[in-house]
Design goal:
The complex is a heterodimer of chains A (272) and B (291). With 272 residues, chain A is an all-alpha fold. In chain A, 87% of the residues lie in helices and 0% in strands. Chain A is built from ten helices and no strands. Chain A starts with a helix and ends with a helix. By secondary structure, chain B is mainly α. The longest helix of chain B has 40 residues. The N terminus of chain B is likely disordered. The chains are: A mainly alpha (272), B mainly alpha (291).
């Protein structure tokens, strides 16, 4: 505590003396630097992905560790958020006597926004952060340098498989989350406002929701996967400074991916 | 996080044990691989253990809030760390969320009835009752939760927490309590601010995309006291949950830099799950109480 306060005091004073323009310029420069180096990582990744120079065993291992092991979180999140959607809509439904529209409302909001967004946030926390921590630990303990010494390309051996695994994981997890969230919504509707599953199903498949709505959510989830994969690999490879450095990098990657997901969501929502 | 290299030991032990079976030497017994029931039971036990630890941490934090030592400036410092440092991130995210929500709601509303005059009032009610608090808290769970776990976790790894214990100072009093007070205050303030940002951006979106008059949009008649109360209870609950859950993840760090990374991961996931579960409980209770 005492140590952290000693560190804090000068930085707080430094912010006061720096001036707004200085701080703004510094922030802008650091954003530009992050974007640039992320672009470089993206270029290197793309060159390996196009030429299919990916380690297959590492890809399957990553898929298992990232995908299969994340299933409990995805299941819990999807069931709960589906139920929350219906609980939030419940007062409005009862006021308007719109019981026949519950399935449509839940399906629409789930497919288009809630399932892709919430799944991406949870996968970001679990897989993205974990990926940064692993790569960061390898950088700090100089394992990546050791690979380079042995003439093994760390991008195609370590980074590209993880990136691909994150994108696949998020896409498939969103498909699962779509289904489970609808199940959760159906359950909450039955228990709380007495909408029978048959009514729910009819309004869900009554023609107001098209394939386009589901596809829009799935396209989004693949793009979110690209954002999470890129930022977690970038921040993991850019770690400096021991154990606290790894913690800082994980913090930075989680924040950057979350902001990136929402900004991207806005643009995708408008274009699709 | 555990890497996948640790499973080599049992496969080596099994043939040795089989060969030694003929003689009368003590046979090295390999424990049978845990079956499905054992795994399930282990998971449930782990869940209960974590829940009890979280409860104990919460109670001890509350005790120190009342009886602990007062350190000058600590709470203000963490309020700056948690609040002011998250302001930019939260403003950007909530601005985009406001635009997305109003756009999607408007498009859907038009499919069923062409009258958009109640869009603003309904949007505000949802914002106050749930969306501002829950989405804002999910964002803060990643930003603040990861930060707390990384800070506390690297203090654990570098043995600064053990040093505190040797000085007869409880780490909860020094590390968790100031963050707890700061988080309750700042999360409430940040959520009110994020609701305002989302509302204003939604208003502008409705104006630009659907030609909806801002005066029609600015309709406060749907916001009643129950909605306000629910929103406020959510703010306080999330504000209390974020430092407790992520502080628990930080304090239970072990191992070197790998441990700090895994503690941060656990903090983000557990804090987000805590927000979602609290949201379900509070929303359902509010619906059952107020109707």
């Amino acid at each position: 505590m005492a140590k952290s306060k000693e560190v804090a005091a000068p930085s707080a004073r430094a912010i006061e003396t720096k001036g707004v323009l200085h701080a703004a310029g510094e922030a802008l420069l650091s954003i530009a630097q992050t974007t640039g180096s992320m672009g470089l990582v993206a270029g290197r990744l793309l060159s390996r992905l196009v030429r299919l120079r990916i380690d297959r065993d590492e890809l399957f291992r990553s898929l298992y560790r990232m995908g299969v092991k994340s299933m409990p979180i995805v299941v819990v999140t999807a069931l709960f958020t589906g139920a929350i959607v219906v609980i939030q809509a419940a007062p409005l439904v009862q006021r308007l006597q719109a019981h026949a529209l519950v399935g449509w409302a839940a399906g629409f909001s789930t497919f288009r926004e809630i399932a892709p967004l919430l799944t991406a946030l949870m996968i970001n926390g679990r897989v993205g952060a974990n990926n940064t921590a692993e790569l960061g630990t390898m950088v700090v303990t100089e394992q990546i340098d050791a690979m380079r010494v042995l003439a093994i390309d760390p991008i195609s051996f370590l980074v590209a498989p993880r990136f691909l695994a994150i994108v696949c994981t998020l896409f498939l997890a969103t498909v699962l989350a779509d289904a489970l969230a609808i199940l959760g919504a159906c359950g909450a509707g039955m228990v709380l406002i007495g909408v029978s599953p048959a009514t729910f199903y009819n309004s869900l498949t009554g023609g107001l929701i098209g394939v386009g709505d589901i596809m829009s959510g799935l396209v989004k989830s693949a793009l979110f996967g690209v954002v999470i994969g890129l930022s977690s690999c970038h921040f993991g490879l850019a770690v400096t400074g021991g154990a606290p450095g790894v913690g800082r990098a994980v913090n930075a990657t989680v924040v950057a991916s979350a902001a990136g997901i929402f900004v991207l969501d806005y643009f995708v929502s408008f274009t699709l | 996080m555990s890497t996948s290299h640790g499973s080599a030991v049992p496969t080596q032990a099994t043939p040795a044990g089989a060969r030694a079976g003929g003689s009368h030497e003590p046979v090295p017994v390999t424990p049978p691989a845990p079956g499905f029931v054992a795994k399930l039971g282990g998971g449930v036990l782990e869940l209960f253990r974590t829940a009890r630890e979280l409860y104990s941490l919460f109670v001890r934090t509350l005790y120190y809030v009342v009886r602990g030592r007062r350190e000058k400036g600590a709470v203000a410092y963490y309020m700056y760390e948690i609040g002011n440092r998250s302001l930019f991130f939260l403003t950007v995210v909530m601005g985009f969320i406001g635009m997305i929500l109003v756009y999607q709601a408007g498009v859907q509303n038009k499919r069923i009835l062409p009258d958009l005059s109640m869009l603003g009032a309904t949007y505000l009610e949802y914002l106050v009752r749930d969306l501002a608090a829950s989405i804002g808290a999910l964002m803060l769970a990643t930003r603040v939760g990861a930060g707390i776990a990384a800070e506390v976790g690297s203090m654990v790894v570098t043995e600064q927490v053990d040093a505190l214990r040797m000085c007869a100072a409880d780490p909860i009093d020094y590390l968790i309590k100031p963050r707890f007070i700061a988080s309750i205050i700042m999360v409430t303030c940040l959520i009110i601010w994020s609701g305002l940002v989302a509302y204003v951006m939604g208003l502008l979106t409705a104006w630009v995309m659907f030609d909806l008059n801002p005066q029609t949009f600015m309709n406060l008649q749907m916001v009643k006291y129950p909605a306000l109360l629910t929103g406020l209870v959510k703010c306080l609950a999330y504000g209390a949950a974020i430092p407790i859950v992520s502080g628990h993840a930080g304090l239970s760090t072990f191992g070197g830099s790998e441990g700090v990374g895994s503690a941060t991961t656990r903090a983000v996931v557990n804090t987000s799950l805590a927000v979602i579960i609290l949201n379900l409980i509070i929303s359902a209770t509010s619906f059952l109480v107020f109707g």
